[in-house]
Amino acid sequence: MRKTTLFAILILMATQVKAQQQSFKKSTAYFEVGGNGVGFSVGYERQLGKKTGLGLHTGISLSGNKPGLVAGAKYLTDLGNHKSFLETGLGITLADREYLGAKQDTQTGQNPYTPALIPSVGYRHHTKYGLMWRINYTPVISRYNSLAFYPGISVGWRF
Questions:
Q1: Is a pLDDT exceeding 60 seen at residue 92?
Q2: How far apart (Å, rounded) are the C-alpha atoms in residues 100 and 98?
Q3: Residue 79 to residues 45, 124, 134: CA-CA distances in angstroms?
Q4: What is the share, in percent, of the chain residues with pLDDT greater than 70?
Q5: Residue 56 CB partners (closer than 8 Å, separation 6+)
């Protein structure tokens, strides 16, 4: 009886260790060129569920001469192997007005920032070591200018 109990405990422990090694990493820190940050940006994303799906992201961008803010939501659709995903999302970027196409203001004291709506769709890949990379199509829609073709490339680390 002791041997059977010990064997059962060892099997359960081995199963538990294996399950912990393959746990889903919900957080990602990344660097992006183009995309939601419009210029260069660093960001943080957090998946809300126990598996890939809806996630929220935020970050700081440098577009033009001024830093900007990035926020939005993304949805990851697994393409079958838990490594490749279709990524869709919608974000808002608070960026430099002149960088987004506004004429230089002659009035002093006017807000130098303007919001831009940025939908996105693209391909995302996760490696087993935690590396994440993606390529997105991210049109930029602002009050002053719309960029119909604006790609985004990101590289980051999942943890």
A1: yes
A2: 5
A3: 20, 10, 14
A4: 81
A5: 45, 46, 48, 71, 72, 73, 74
Q: Is the pTM of this model over 0.85?
A: no
Q: CA Rg, the chain, in Å?
A: 21
What 3-state class would DSSP assign to 6?
helix
Alpha-carbon gap, residue 14 to 9, rounded angstroms: 9
**Counting runs of H as helices and runs of E as strands, what totals does the chain give?**
1, 10
CA 81, distance to chain mean position in Å, is: 20
Token pair of 70 as six digits: 């990035």
Sorted by where each begins, the domain ranges of the chain are 25-158
Specify whether domain 25-158 bears CATH 3.40.980.10.
no
Residue 119's alpha-carbon distances to 54, 68, 116, 124, 158, in angstroms, are 15, 17, 10, 16, 23
